[in-house]
């Protein structure tokens, strides 16, 4: 698994090196032909959305338009592989792809997506809009420290990531393995936003705490709930999406990933695909996503999570690791966490 993922990371690095993010002409929102979408009858979506959130969103869409949603869920690596393989073969099985920015850049670079700007996205923050109109941001995934409320008494949880370096947390922290998870690489590198060039010193100190490394951010939550770790770094939304004794640490700023939607340029149900994206970005679709703890971008809509509005006001979206640093950063993180 590690060799496969390392190959995927190297491929991502190569694509970032080859890709220039020159904005194209601004695109205006485009109304959807609802009648044509209904005639197509269904929409096929490949995405990373957790099942309970996907089920709620798709039920709302199906009830509103009478169009069946077929959803295939997988990790980002598999979504990239499957989407590109089908596109290269000229037999795309998808109409819509939903994933984080890096996987979507991989796919977008291969001319898979058609231009489309959903009208509802005009209400989203201007700085989040993609000028090339090939993908649309629709939700954020803020990151904090989660902790087991049965293992830690009130006031005992870390107050910041710096607190994780206290010797008392040694062998009690879970994080996603940066050699297997691209979001973990991004998160650690983006600590530069608060620590400057000393970010790598922090990572080295964190590694000395001998954290429990898991394949992605979701298993961090499982480790906390099971008591395998007392604390962990992962998405805030999991405090609602997982059943168990967990809460999150309130911070001044929250490093966050963002997820995007794109409609295929050569699919069987292009109108239904556009309608699906418009629905996901509409007030109705965003409310449905938010009720299952997703942080969305439609103004005034928040998930039922403690201090959700404060979190939403203080999101700091992760930057891409610069193209000339990606391989170096990945190699450094591998050395730090595995060269004992």
Our count of helices gives 14
Strand proportion, as a percent range, falls in 15-25%
CATH architecture of the largest domain: 3-Layer(aba) Sandwich
Give the oligomeric state of the chains in this entry, treating copies of one chain as homo and distinct chains as hetero: single chain
Radius of gyration in whole Å, from Cα? 20 Å
Shape: globular
CATH superfamily of the largest domain: Periplasmic binding protein-like II
Q: Helical content, roughly?
A: 25-40%
Give the mean pLDDT. Answer: 90
Structural class: alpha/beta
Number of strands: 11
The name CATH uses for the topology of the largest domain is: D-Maltodextrin-Binding Protein, domain 2
CATH classification, class level of the largest domain: Alpha Beta
Largest sheet: 11 strands, mixed
Distance between the termini: 21 Å
Describe the protein in words.
Helices cover 40% and strands 18% of the residues. It is α/β, with parallel strands linked by helices and 340 residues long. The protein is built from 14 helices and eleven strands. Strands 1, 2, 3, 4, 5, 6, 7, 8, 9, 10 and 11 form an eleven-stranded mixed beta sheet that branches. It has helices spanning 2-18, 34-40, 51-65, 76-88, 101-108, 182-189, 192-195, 199-208, 217-225, 238-241, 270-281, 283-291, 308-313, 326-338; strands at 42-47, 68-73, 96-100, 136-148, 173-176, 212-214, 231-235, 246-248, 254-263, 295-296, 315-317. It has two domains: 2-140 and 258-306, Periplasmic binding protein-like II (D-Maltodextrin-Binding Protein, domain 2, 3-Layer(aba) Sandwich), CATH 3.40.190.10; 142-255 and 320-338, Periplasmic binding protein-like II (D-Maltodextrin-Binding Protein, domain 2, 3-Layer(aba) Sandwich), CATH 3.40.190. Strand 1, helix 3 (51-65) and strand 2 form a beta-alpha-beta unit. Mean pLDDT is 90; it is low at 1-26.
């Amino acid at each position: 698994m590690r060799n496969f993922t390392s190959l995927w990371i190297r491929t991502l690095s190569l694509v970032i090196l080859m890709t220039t993010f020159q904005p194209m002409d601004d695109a205006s929102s485009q109304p959807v032909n609802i009648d044509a979408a209904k005639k197509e009858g269904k929409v096929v979506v490949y995405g990373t959305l957790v099942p309970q959130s996907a089920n709620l969103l798709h039920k709302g869409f199906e009830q509103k338009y009478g169009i069946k949603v077929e959803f295939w869920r997988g990790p980002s690596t598999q979504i990239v592989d499957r989407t590109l393989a089908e596109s290269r073969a000229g037999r795309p099985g998808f109409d819509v792809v939903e994933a984080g920015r890096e996987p979507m850049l991989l796919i977008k670079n291969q001319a898979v997506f058609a231009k489309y700007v959903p009208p509802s996205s005009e209400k989203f923050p201007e700085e989040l809009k993609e000028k090339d109109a090939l993908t649309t941001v629709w939700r954020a995934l803020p990151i904090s420290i989660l902790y087991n409320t049965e293992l830690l008494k009130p006031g005992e949880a870390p107050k910041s990531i710096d607190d994780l370096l206290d010797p008392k947390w040694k062998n009690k922290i879970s994080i996603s393995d940066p050699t297997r998870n691209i979001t973990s690489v991004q998160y650690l590198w983006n600590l530069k936003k608060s620590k400057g060039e000393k970010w790598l010193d922090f990572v080295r100190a964190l590694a000395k705490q001998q954290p429990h490394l898991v394949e992605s951010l979701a298993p961090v939550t499982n480790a906390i709930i099971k008591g395998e770790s007392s604390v962990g770094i992962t998405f805030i939304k999991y405090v609602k999406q997982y059943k168990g004794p967990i809460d999150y640490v309130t911070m001044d700023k929250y490093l966050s990933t963002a997820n995007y939607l794109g409609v295929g340029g050569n699919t069987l149900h292009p109108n239904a695909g556009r309608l699906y994206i418009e629905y996901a970005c509409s007030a109705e679709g965003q409310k449905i996503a938010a009720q299952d703890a997703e942080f969305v971008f439609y103004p005034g809509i928040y998930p039922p999570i403690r201090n959700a509005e404060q979190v939403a006001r203080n999101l700091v979206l992760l930057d891409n690791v610069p193209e000339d640093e990606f391989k170096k950063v990945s190699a450094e993180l591998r050395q730090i966490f595995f060269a004992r």
